[in-house]
Amino acid sequence: MDTEPSTTPEPGTAVATPPSVPFTGWRVIAGLFIVLMVSSGFGFYGQGVYLRALVVERGWSTGLASAATATFFVVSGLFGYAISGLLLRVDVRKVIVAGLVLGPVGLAMLGQVHEPWQMFAADVVFGAGFALSGLVPATTTVARWFVRRRSVALSVASTGLSMGGIAITPFVAAVIARDHIGPVSPWLAVIWVAIGLPVTLLLVRSSPAGENQYPDGDPPPPVAAGAAEGTRPAVAMPGLSFAEARATRFYWMMTAAYLFVMLGQVGGLSQQVKLVSERVDSLAAASVTIVAASSVIGRLAGGLLVTRVPPKRFTAVLMAVQGAALASFAFAATPASVIITCIVFGLSVGNLLMLQPLLLAETFGVREYSRIYSMSSLIMTVGVGLGPTVLGVLHDVSGYELAFLVAAASSGLALVLFSLAGPLVSAETREAQVLPTRSLGPVGMATAG
Predict the structure, then answer these.
(1) Going by C-beta distance under 8 Å and a sequence separation of 6 or more, which residues neighbour residue 10?
(2) How many Cβ atoms from other residues are within 10 Å of residue 83's Cβ?
(3) What is the pTM of this model?
């Protein structure tokens, strides 16, 4: 892929201040909202629908289909880490566009599989595309555009994930139930591309520096004494390197906690449709919408709440809430219990996924955020991959009661590990303790100060 246009100034270079223009950041958030909506609707939330269709239409076991779903998530984690360095050099739109090609191709392939190995191959392509148009490029971009309002911006952008479960996944479930996965998967792929591609090209931008703007739409900081008139000063930005971040206990304990959070969460999401169909079949498709809608409400409220309460404490409470919801799924067998459980589960799902990148950005800054987040996300993907497989195998052996109790226990273990991570220390405080002040030049690259 090509690098950013050569007309972009070198780090630390003063450039002429352009005329005042409207802040582009919220337009970028709107674009990322839609990109994440289609990627999650057809990808993340859609996995439970595809799993059920493959079990019913191909006659494969839940455990086998769950292992293929796990492959999707593991590959997405690997590709998310692989592109982390690329995001420091390449226009984020190029990465997202690549994902908006590969993801739909993988979805179209999944509908045509007739042998287990083909299912796994399709999920490899599918997972790669999901990563390239998913949370790593999206949260990296948000972290560059916002500092003071980062929690709100992240909550709005990542709400696109839940909206995918509300607006897209029920449609996917309905057409697959009516016409089967084979005939409809190519058309679903076309819809994915038709929505995501123009939005990415028109709305998404890599960084405020590339638009001659500053994070949060703030005015330029004071120009250094002696600078030429009309120059554009660099912005002081705290941030640790990837090596410094991974040397902290907080980084590894939080990452380990999120591994077990996602084992329970993604395992539950991937099996939710099938569990509900076995117990209250009329709510099977609606259960996805309920979880997603609850996730939207919870995430938007959480984005505001986390500006007023300690984010670490808020995260710990949500881990406990997720564990309680998964334990409730183990026994939910009536319409009322299923609906209540889905609502509680959704409140935890949306916020926990939003809080991981927020905690990392607040703690370690944006200097090498893409590498810091992608490594944590890659390790977390072990839990993401294990979740569907573990719950699927336990279902085949003993049923969903044991499977969801194990998922609840995984969330409990996550809470214990997270409590051992130590206090959350901001990037500014860490940098003052460890490093000399750094600044980001107009292209958002770190320079020593």
Answers:
(1) 441, 443
(2) 23
(3) 0.73
Number of Cβ within 10 Å of residue 110's Cβ equals 26
Residues 6+ apart with CB under 8 A from 175: 184, 188
Q: Give the residue-averaged pLDDT of 131-155.
A: 88
The domain defined by 25-217+234-448 folds into Growth Hormone; Chain: A; (1.20.1250)
**What DSSP letter does each residue of 358-420 carry, written as one string?**
HHHHHHHBSTTHHHHHHHHHHHHHHHHHHHHHHHHHHHHHH-HHHHHHHHHHHHHHHHHHHHT
What would the mean pLDDT of 173-187 be, rounded to a whole number?
92
> Per-domain residue ranges for the chain?
25-217+234-448
Helix (H) or strand (E) holding 329: helix 311-331
The model's pLDDT over 72-117, given as tens digits with 9 standing for 90+, comes to 988 988 898 888 888 888 899 999 999 999 999 999 999 999 999 9
- Single out the residue of 187, 191, 160 nearest to residue 44, CA to CA: 160
Residue 382 CB: number of other CB atoms within 10 A? 17
Element housing 236 (H / E): strand 235-236
Backbone φ and ψ for 235, nearest 5 degrees, come out as: -105, 130
Looking at residues 258-274, what average pLDDT do you find?
A: 90
240 backbone dihedrals φ, ψ, rounded to 5°:
-95, 160
